[in-house]
Design goal:
The protein contains nine helices and two strands, in the order αααααααααββ. It is mainly alpha-helical. The protein has one domain (2-13, 51-258). A two-stranded antiparallel ribbon has the order 1-2. The longest helix has 29 residues, at 70-98. It is globular.
Length: 283
């Protein structure tokens, strides 16, 4: 039963990717090959371009608090208030969800927990599907998801270390924080990674796909609370972090961002067969 549920959830996550248009670039993009700056280097030029994109996206995400719009400030304020409410009710909410266990619910939430634990493997599998189908859109979405996961891991891991909150399985109160102690419960990283992937995949998609992706990600977060792997507030902040980074990476890699640079995998077949990446510059 559990294996069937995991298979079903994985199929739901990957199937919309497979249905994307084969091999076509997104409309509104101008494709050019951008050559790296001249000068001695020990790195492959394509790798240098990828690193430059990662550096630019990292800087954009890190500096986002200094570019808050009135709407962004309001969202940040609501997030803060919601976090305070959850912190005050973590114990009660955890008990309400984890205290109503049954065999069906165990299998149900266990499948979602497996989905969260294996989100990177599923993303790699999506890239393999795109490679076998020679589908640029699928491969690009998978690469963006991996970039979002990397940035989420970086910022989320730093927050975990700084906050030093212990998880529900300890003897500590949910309100106990021990900064730089090595404890790492807030934000919940399984939830954050899943929401970052869901946000990348849902970016620019229709209502059905968007609802489906975020429903799956929400299931992963609820599973973390159900099995007492994280407090509700940990899951909430993980979802916020993952969504923010995932949408940012998708925006920076899309034609919605004027002047953005994105990496698109490619292959060339002719006298010589080669594989690599091309840089997409939109303006």
């Amino acid at each position: 039963m559990r294996s069937l549920i995991v298979l079903f959830l994985t199929a739901m996550l990957v199937s919309p990717l497979v249905s994307r248009a084969d091999g076509s670039e997104s409309p509104g993009r101008s494709l050019t090959i951008i050559k790296p700056a001249a000068g001695p280097s020990r790195l492959n030029p394509a790798f240098e371009l990828i690193m430059e994109k990662l550096d630019n996206d990292l800087h954009y995400v890190a500096s986002s608090p200094f570019r808050l719009t009135p709407k962004g400030t309001a969202v940040l304020g609501l997030t803060f208030l919601a976090s305070i409410f959850l912190l005050d009710n973590d114990g009660k909410m955890l008990g309400d969800l984890s205290g109503r266990q049954s065999n069906f619910q165990n299998d149900y939430y266990d499948a979602f927990r497996d989905l969260g634990d294996n989100i990177l493997q599923i993303t790699a599998g999506a890239y393999l599907i795109g490679y076998l189908r020679e589908n640029v859109d699928i491969k690009s979405a998978a690469l963006m998801s991996l970039e979002a996961a990397a940035l989420t891991s970086l910022f989320g891991g730093a927050a975990e270390f700084i906050l030093g909150r212990n998880g529900p399985g300890s003897t500590y109160s949910p309100k106990d924080f021990k900064p730089f102690s090595g404890f790492g419960s807030m934000p919940d990283m399984d939830t954050a990674m899943t929401f970052s992937t869901a946000s990348v995949l849902a970016y620019g998609q229709g209502t059905f796909s968007t609802v489906m992706y975020y429903t799956l990600a929400t299931g992963v977060g609820l599973a973390q609370v159900y099995f007492e792997d994280a407090w509700p507030s940990d899951v909430f902040l993980g979802a916020i972090l993952g969504t923010a980074i995932g949408r940012t990476v998708a925006y920076l890699s899309s034609s919605d961002n004027n002047g953005s640079v994105s990496i698109v995998p490619m292959s060339v077949t002719g006298v010589y067969h080669a594989m690599g990446v091309k840089v997409v510059y939109s303006f």
